[in-house]
Amino acid sequence: MSRNAVVIGAGVAGILAAAALAPVVDQVVVLDRDALPDAPEHRKGVPQGRHAHLMMAGGLAAMDALVPRTDMRQHLLAAGAHEISLSRGMVALTPEGWFRRWRPQDHLMITSSRALLEWAARTAVLDDFTNIEIRQVQAVGLVGSAERVRGVRIATDDGESDLDADFVVDASGRGSRIVNWLGQLGISDIPERTLDSGLVNSTRIYRVPDGAKDWPLTLVQPNPFTGEPGRSGMIVPIEGDRWMVSLGGSRGGEPPKDPDEFVQYALALPHPIVGQIISAAEPLTPVFTSHSTSNARRYLEKAKTWPDGLVVLGDALATFNPLYGQGMSIAALGAKALADTVRKQWGAPGLSRRIQRQVAKSVDMAWTLAVSSDVLYPGVVGGEATAADRMAAKYTQRLTRAATGSYSAAAALWDVTSVLATPTRLMRPGVLLSALAGPLLPPLSGPPLTPAEHEILRSLTRDAERLSRSQ
Ligand SMILES: Cc1cc2nc3c(=O)[nH]c(=O)nc-3n(C[C@H](O)[C@H](O)[C@H](O)COP(=O)(O)OP(=O)(O)OC[C@H]3O[C@@H](n4cnc5c(N)ncnc54)[C@H](O)[C@@H]3O)c2cc1C
User: Fold this and answer.
1) Backbone φ/ψ region at 252: left (φ over 0), alpha (ψ -120 to 50), beta
2) Can you tell me whether residue 36 is helix, strand or coil?
3) Looking at residue 467, what is its pLDDT?
4) What is the pLDDT of residue 241?
5) DSSP letters along 438-467, please?
6) pLDDT, position 369
7) Which residues line ligand 1 (CB under 6 A)?
8) Residue percentage of the chain with pLDDT more than 90
9) Separation of 114 CA from ligand 1 center, angstroms?
10) How high is the pLDDT of residue 424?
11) Which of 195, 428, 431, 434 has its CA 20 to 30 A from that of 411?
């Protein structure tokens, strides 16, 4: 008997879920209400695509495992994405001082526009599997019962109809109606939690100035320990000789939408380096803002009954403050968990619930990281910092201080932010000792730039001064 699956949403989570299911079913139909572009172009259904998107090493490894015939890293680099080593290729100011740049080129992450990343994932998946079809259609509900989902209700020009499926994945993103849809099947005990630091993200794309092609990824992190709103800035190289510059501010410290104030905000961060670098650069877009930044989680794995034939992945399951750059990586890990379980146990009773529990473990990784910091910002909505939160935050602060002058402490932190390890990595005896010992090298008094990068900074600062005199 032939088997088929339907995936709702053709974003990163949906397309990777299709790859997870393709080897075990005869056909996967992916539904998206957007027309998907043939090239890496921004689209309406993914408004966050205007903002910087980092793909962490753990997420890339999961993606790679799902498309066995494509080397995802090569595919992305060939399309213009950049590969950045957190340990060597990044200039980052933490609340505890500048990270050093170490010799090992490890903890590699991919940077590109979100549009390029999604396009690369989609083309790789469609090349690898011929039994996946994408249809432009809107899902409006589930078909089935609290015991078993048997399809998806769709809306077309001719009205609503049912699309039968042996297996359904909801990957319809942050705006997913899954809780309502489950309610219509009689499942209404889904615990939910939202923790919102009120972060606003403002992003603008710039042309990389002549001579600045090798400028490293630059990051000024927010400080959750001051009792003041967190403010941050980041210069991310993307395809087409462009920088995506993102500024972030939690409630009370929101970055502006006005282009002139954008640079001023960057110059006023705890270090002006982001503002200095972009002051003379040519902007290619307006400033885009995003308020969709809360940590929101649906604990679907805790529902008393869970229907066979349904799994929920990606932002439809949980979203995280984007500052930590984890959402797509966790979506990829979720799809990998789906692949690992469904391929071994197709048809077994309780399979969907087991998968949902597996997926919740990867959500936990990013949730802990994001929520334990966000809860410290003033005006946070959805929870107050408990004594345990404060203790965890104090420990992270201490470990970050150690990481400014100790490679092993820095590597432990990057293992977690790269989604290569769970936060328990930070509690291993060696890491605890590093945190206790503190930095082994003295703090840096300024950004760790190479002589060539100092020259770029000097030259761009001169250009900015010339520009401001001429105005
Ligand atoms: C400002 C910002 C910056 C971010 N930066 C990063 C970062 O640096 N790194 C990172 O990993 N993550 C980042 N994220 C998070 C990341 O964007 C998400 O985690 C990721 O896009 C989730 O993918 P998804 O496929 O689950 O959802 P989406 O990408 O939102 O895709 C959902 C898809 O479902 C479709 N859809 C929705 N409803 C329906 C329906 N009813 N029927 C049919 N189709 C439907 C939509 O058209 C869309 O194509 C950021 C988020 C924001 C807001």
Assistant:
1) left
2) coil
3) 83
4) 97
5) --SSPPPSS----HHHHHHHHHHHHHHHHH
6) 83
7) 8-14, 31-34, 45-46, 48, 51-54, 138-139, 171-175, 201, 290, 292-293, 314-316, 322, 325-329, 331
8) 90
9) 9
10) 92
11) 195
